[in-house]
Amino acid sequence: MAENIIPLIKICGMTREADAVRAIELGAQAIGMLFYEKSPRFVSTPQASTIAHTVGVGGLKVGLFVDPDSGTVKEVLDAVPLDILQFHGSEPAEFCGSFGLPYWKTLRAKDPASLPGLAGEYPEAAGILLDTWHPTKAGGTGETFDWSMLDDLELTQHLILAGGLNPGNIRAAINQVQPWAVDVCSGVESSPGIKSVQLMKQFIEEVRRV
Question: Most Cβ neighbours (<10 Å): which of 110, 114, 154, 162?
Fold first, then answer.
């Protein structure tokens, strides 16, 4: 990504229609919904359908899954007009690409030497989302990782940066990593799943200042 190009902004973990609509109004280009029952930001299929239809064509709707079976994904897609699938588990590339939608594959930044090989396993992915490694959590740690791990990383896919981003560190993150997109969740919340309009506004303004 060239310097000083503003990355796409995705605000993840939406559980309320009003938060999703406000995020798009403030300038986010994408919202994320978690179809993972172990997450405090889990949304049911009916709940997600309402959020997605309320947002309409104003923003990209991303559905996040962690090692689902194909029936679960298809059931969600039958009811929720998603634009992108995001996989956070150990799903193989063939599975990720089997639903007729673009997908983003999450990798956890633990060992920089392994990242190119792992990303290479998903050549058809529209994006590789790099998140903070945790021994037990699939994401949503609220913690950053050492961005210098990505200094020499070359991807054929778009690079999406996640992991502990917030209004206070997002400009430094963008300046160092130069991602195609940034993905924020807990960094713009007042409590899990409840977005703060003020924090979303500050985050988006900081992104635009790079």
Answer: 162
